[in-house]
Amino acid sequence: MSEETLSNLSTETRSFEPPAELAAAANVKADAYAAADADRLAFWAEQAGRLDWAEPFTQVLDWSNAPFAKWFVGGKLNIAHNCVDRHVEAGRGDQVALHFVGEPGDTRDITYAQLKDEVSRAANALEELGIEPGDRVAIYLPMIPEAVIAMLACARVGATHTVVFGGFSADALASRIADCNAKLVITADGGYRRGAPSALKPAVDEALVKIDNDNTAIVENVLVVRRTGQDVAWNGDIDVWWHEVVDESSEIHEAKAFDAEHPLFVMYSSGTTGKPKGILHTTGGYLVGTAYTHHAVFDLKPETDVYWCTADVGWITGHSYIVYGPLANGVTQVLYEGTPDSPHKGRWWEIIEKYKVTLFYTAPTAIRTFMKWGRSIPDGFDLSSLRLLGSVGEPINPEAYMWYRDVIGGDRCPIVDTWWQTETGMMMISPLPGVTAGKPGSAMTALPGVGADVVDEAGVPVPNGSGGYLVLTEPWPSMLRTLMGDDERFVDTYWSRFKEQGYYFAGDGAKKDEDGAIWLLGRVDDVMNISGHRLSTTEIESALVSHPRVAEAAVVGAADETTGQAIVAYVILREGALAEATQGEELVAELRNHVAKEIGAIAKPRSIMLVPELPKTRSGKIMRRLLKDVAENRVVGDTTTLADSNVMDLIAAGAKTST
Ligand code: 6R9
C-alpha cells in the first residue's frame, strides 16, 4: 500500500477521552495491557477464572501442533451451566435475562430461573429425540427466545449447533445441513418481518427434499416452534412440535461437563465464492474469550446495566455477544425480533427508551441508514439511559461515528469500534471505554492478551504512519480451531501467507497512525489500484459520506484501459437532498470535486451513480462484487446471499439510463 494513500486517510485528528466517571469505575484499567504483556498465558488463565470448571485445566495452551490450538487442556465444563444455572445458584434467578420484544408488539420477560427451566426442558427433549454429544443440530429460527434456548440446549447436551440465518434460502440451508451432517433441524412455522408473518418451515421442507434426492444427510427430525400460527405442511414421520415435546419435558436436567475442546458450533462464513467455510469453535476457550471481552469492552455491570445487541443470532455477533459472552456474564438484555422500521422508523429508539438500555451494540450500516432518515426521529425519544455505544461489522466512517456519538450518544457516551471476525470468535481490536481516547474511524489497539500488527508483503511490521496487512501475532482462546472437515483449507486460508512468522492472516488492510493506533481499510480485495496508486474503497466512501448530502456510499474499482482500474461510486442521498439540488448532474459534479478536495485528484470517481439502495448481505455487508459487475457492464453474478434481491434490478436499470 503506498504511503501516499495512507497518509491521506487520516486527516482525522479528533479524539475523545473516556468520561471521567466511567473511567474511575471501569472494569478494566490501563494496567491490564502490561499485565497481559508480562505473561499472556497467565493472563488468560486468570480470565478463565470467570467460569465454573467441573475439572480444572492442566495447561493453558498447547500450541505444539500449530496452527491447531488446544486451550485449557484437560479442563471440563458445561456451557449452559455457566450461562444460566450458576447465576440461579448465586441467587440471581429473579433477574431478567431476556426482555424479548416481538415485532408485532408482543413482549416476554424471561428471568434466569425461567431460562434455566426452559433450557433444561429443551435439553431433555433433545435427548429424547436421540441427540447425543457430538451430533450436529441445525437451527433455523427467527429472533425469538427459542433461538437462544435451542443453542443453549445443544451446548448443554454436547451437541454441535449450526445456526443458519432465517433469511437464507432453502438451497443455502440444504448445503449447510448436508455439509455438517445435521441429525436434527430446529425451526419455526414462521417469524414476523416488516409487519407480516414470513414462513420458515417450507424452506426446511424444501431443503430436506433436496438433501433426500442427493442422499447426503441424515436428518431424523424437524422440531418446530409455533410462532406465527400460520398453516404448515406436516410430515408425521419426522416433524414434531416444540410445544408438544419441550413443554412436556421435565425442567430437571443434569448438565454433564465436556472437554474444553469439545466442538460447540460451526458457523458458515458468508464467503462470496465457492463452498461455504464451516468455521469451528470449541467450548472452553471460546467462552473465556467472549466473556472477558464482553466484560472489558462494554464495561458490563451485570446488576445494573441493560444491554442490547441488534445483531441476529444467525451471525457470529449474535453467537458471541447475544448468547455466550453476555449470558456467561449474567447480563439483562433486550432481544428484538424485527426490523428497525417496523412499524415505524423510531422502533429501536422506542425500545431503548422503554427498557432504559445502557449499552448498545450495532453496525455502521444501520447507523448510516438512520442518518439517512434524519435525526428528528431519534431526537423524539429519551435516550438518556445510554452510557456506552458499540460498533461492529465494517469500518465506521468518521462521519457516521460523529453522528452516532452526537445524536444517539448525546455527546457523552464513548464509542467502542470493535474489530473482529467469525474466525476470531471474540473482539480483538477495540478501545477500552475507561482507558482509550477514541478516534473517529479507528478501532485503536489490540485488547489485553491479544497480539495484532500491520505488516508488509514480507511479513515485517510496518512503522507507524504506514499501512499493510493486518495480522494476529499470537494465538487467542476463542480462535477458530479449523474449517469443518477441511484442515488443509484452514491452513491455506489463514496460516500460509505469513507461515514463517506464524502469523494469522486476517484478510484486511490496515494502517498504523503516528500514535500506533490501527485504522482498518477494508478487505484487501477491496483495495483498488488506480494508475499505480493504491486507494482503499473505505477511504473514498468516507470522503463521500462526509458530504452533507450523502447518506451512504459504496465504491468499486472497475477495469479501465488507461488507468488499470477506475473508481465507480454508488451513492444514496440523504432524504430530500436530490430535491434541494437543482439537478442530479450538478450534484454528481459537486461530489466528484468533494472527493478530490478531501483526498486528492487521483481519488476522483470516474462516475457516480445516485441509487436508492445498496446490495447488502443479510449481515449488512455491502456486496461490492455485484456493483463491480454493473460497473464493468457484466451480467450481475450470484445474488442469492442478498438481503433484498430486487436491489440489483433497480441499480442495473439506473446504470443503463445514466450511461
Ligand atoms: C464480527 C464480524 C469480519 C470482517 C472483518 C472486517 C470487517 C468487522 C470491523 C470490520 C473494520 C470493524 N469488520 N468489524 N472492519 N472495523 N470494527 O463482522 O464478523 O462477519 O466474519 O466479518 O468484517 O473486514 O474481516 P464477520
TrEMBL record:
The cofactor required is: Mg(2+)
- Which keywords label this protein? Acetylation, ATP-binding, Ligase, Magnesium, Metal-binding, Nucleotide-binding
Pfam families associated with the record: ACAS_N (PF16177), AMP-binding (PF00501), AMP-binding_C (PF13193)
Would the keyword Repeat be found if you checked this record's keyword annotation?
A: no
Binding, ATP:
G393, E394, P395, D417, T418, W419, W420, Q421, T422, D508, R523, R534
Query: Binding of CoA: at which residues?
Result: R193, R194, G195, A196, T317, S531
Return one GO MF term: ATP binding
Catalytic activity, reaction form: acetate + ATP + CoA = acetyl-CoA + AMP + diphosphate
- Residue ranges constituting the AMP-binding enzyme C-terminal domain according to the UniProt record: 539-621
Q: What is this protein called?
A: Acetyl-coenzyme A synthetase
Tell me the name of the encoding gene.
acs
